[in-house]
């Protein structure tokens, strides 16, 4: 009985084993059949794996196109830079001369501190990490020039290596930074190409980036190219060069003016925009806060481009457009009188800045005094729907289509009568500076409204073929006759004895100008903010008034008052006046320049020269040079090319490589401020006159948090002796 039971158990086990074997065989056949039919294993195609195993490919990156100003001056260019890394593990090293890791930490830290903006202790701590195989040096070890890399390599430091990486150079520092934008290496991508992340660098990515190429050939098991097999070569197509409408000289001057005003009257936001209203070309545009594209200083203050992304209520500068609409409708009579002060419109009160008013005044004086009542009455004369048609014709509530990302269309709530009336003096409607520039251009261009334009042309570096961006008429909201009459009345009001614009008058030039003050809505409460200077102050000017060649619009939000400017319009004028005057003077000088009579030299271009060549050229000009940087090539200069070099003006140059402290002895306060701007380092200035001493030794590497104090003395001659 027992033997029979054991035999039965063995049969069962054999049957189970046979069934399992059959099941495995069937699964194997099904799996093999699937692979044969689909050529796929775990989602990966076998033919592609074989091709990858026996095919070698080499990436050939395209060179990113340059961005240049209207005259061909460089704004953004591409080059090769290096990232420094340190190998800390000995896993890949051989002893002795072939050592591939950092062996002498203290010596390595001491040497590197002479070349990069980190002190010896900081570098020592980075290198002294026993559980880490490799370290980088952050920003201090990135964007290293070839010249600096060569100097470090000559120190023969074991374990210090350099990785080649594409770099984008912005030789002008703070220079329309949010408009031009930024291109950075995408370290998440295998090819590590430059990619635009802001401004024109982002919106023109496809034009600037080009098409990468490569070489592909078949190889054997050992990695050697197979004979009689042709390599497949795809040439890289470099990106196009983009010429902007910006004028580098005007832009550099605008940046210096805005910087100075923002130092004396720190503001929540500033914009300044200069346009040629005949073409729509933006000649210069600046904002604060901004960043230095060379040093990356203040990168995190704001990524918002105020010219197209930030919306606000424009205030009384809108009255220039209301005036144009009223003239166009035939309801404006400059000699007609009205009662100023306040006005009841369907139960809502509209006040002038002086609620008790100025009595019965005519409409020219109403423009001069910027009377809200005057423009509400003009609104009533036109009618709400007629005025709305003009707002639409001026294209408020629509994007301008300028070549910038993230443009905001603004808003125009237009339901109740008081909402409609408020828009006539710039309240309740929200706009962007670029929308205002487009609308104002109609007044300066015979009623034809020009779309703002930043790109002048695209040039193919391979064959020089040019593609021009033609100026575009965005619409014609008013007639040519209306536009001219509007300028005439604005000019008359500008020079009226009661005008609010007297502080903006420029010697030698006649302007048509309108100022503005608008309230700011608190985003938390939805109510207008109260308190002193909780406003946006602005001015728009057309010059020369009879036939404007320049249109300048400035806005300043919530400025802090100071001895330099004690009220909002004065802050605006401190930006507006020098920029408009300098631009007008330059346009005259460029046509009638007589160097022999001026007694002044013209600043040559030094960017792109070697440091030695720049020093020699400066000596020939009889000028002292203050040199920033450790590199061998000049990447920034001040004064800018082709501007007058006065007898008392020195030359400031920035070289590539790490930033280093120049010898500022005998430098003027103006020189010191320019060095501070170029480096992005805050300088504490004591006294007046010329630099007598400085807290940082010349040649010392500068870091973002470096604090520099300079002491000035009036007696420069004594110092020279």
UniProtKB/TrEMBL annotation:
GO biological process: cell division; cell wall organization; peptidoglycan biosynthetic process; regulation of cell shape; response to antibiotic
Keyword Cell cycle carried by entry: yes
Membrane topology listed for this record: Single-pass membrane protein
Residue ranges annotated for the PASTA domain, each copy included: 657-714
CC annotations in GO: plasma membrane
GO molecular function: penicillin binding
Pfam families: PASTA, PBP_dimer, Transpeptidase
Subcellular locations according to the entry: Cell membrane
CDD domains assigned to the protein according to its UniProt record, in alphabetical order: PASTA_Pbp2x-like_2 (cd06575)
InterPro entries documented for this protein: Beta-lactam/transpept, Beta-lactam/transpept-like, PASTA_dom, PBP_dimer, PBP_dimer_sf, PCN-bd_Tpept
Regions that span the bilayer: 12-37
Reported function: A transpeptidase that forms peptide cross-links between adjacent glycan strands in cell wall peptidoglycan (PG). Part of the divisome machinery that synthesizes the septal cross wall. Beta-lactams inactivate the PBPs by acylating an essential serine residue in the active site of these proteins.
Family: Belongs to the transpeptidase family.
Protein's name in the database: Penicillin-binding transpeptidase domain-containing protein
